[in-house]
Amino acid sequence: MTAPVFLVGSLAGVRPGDTLTLDGPEGRHAVSVRRLRTGEEVVLTDGGGAGAYGTVAGVEGKDRLTVAVTDVRSEAPRTPRITVVQALPKGDRGELAVETMTETGVDAVVPWAAARCVTQWKGERAAKSLAKWRATAREAGKQSRRLTFPEVADPMTTKQVAALLAEADFAAVLHEEGSTPLATAGLPESGSIVLVVGPEGGVSPEELAAFAAAGARPYRLGRSVLRTSTAGTAATALLLGRTGRWS
Predict the structure, then answer these.
(1) Average pLDDT of 79-91?
(2) Sequence-distant (≥ 6) Cβ neighbours of residue 76 within 8 angstroms
(3) Type and span of the H or E element at 171
(4) Residue ranges of the Ribosomal RNA small subunit methyltransferase E methyltransferase domain (predicted)?
C-alpha cells in the first residue's frame, strides 16, 4: 500500500536528511486517526507539486510527529492542462463532483452559476460553499496520493467562462445533442483544455451561443446522459487517456 499523504505549508529548502515536524490538524489526523508509528512511511506535500518522502522518526502526544526525510521530489505541471467548468449541482453533489474529478486527475475546477442552476451561491452561502469545494479538493488530493492538488477557482459568470474558453487551446461544452463525440475530437498535445459541464436543466441556448462565439463547440460523451456531478469525471478520464497522461 502506498504511503499516506499529508499537507504542509511549505517544503522550500527541504533536503534529504532533514527532519520535519507535522502538527496541527494534519498531525492529529496522522497520530490519532491513522495511528502512524515510528518507522512507517509518509509523504508530506505542499499541494503545489513538491513532496518530501520519509519515515516517522517519532510521535509526541496526540497531534505531533517528526518525519526523517529520505527523498524530495518535484512534480512538473502535466500537459495539456485540463480545467472543468462545473455548473453548481444541488445539495452535496458539488462536493462529490470535485472529489471524483480530483481523484481522476483534473487540474482545475471552476464553479459556474449557470442560468438553469437550481442552486445559487450568494453572500455568506457562496463563501461557505466555495470553502467546502476547496476543502474537498485538498482531502481528495491527499487520498489519491497527489502532489499537485487541483485549483478551485472563484465562481465565474457566463461572461467570464466565455473569456476562459476563448483562451483555451481546446474548448468544449458537454452536450447530449452535440454532433461530435468527445472521444474523436482533435486534441492538442500541450496547452490547455477547458470543458463546460452544464446543470441538470441543461445549458441554455443563450449560453451555448456565448460559448460558441468563444470557440467552444458542443460534444457528447456517449449514448447515455450523465448527471452534472458525474459528467466532468467521465470526460476528464476520457481526456487523460486520449492525451497520454494516463500512459
Answers:
(1) 96
(2) 49
(3) strand 170-174
(4) 79-239
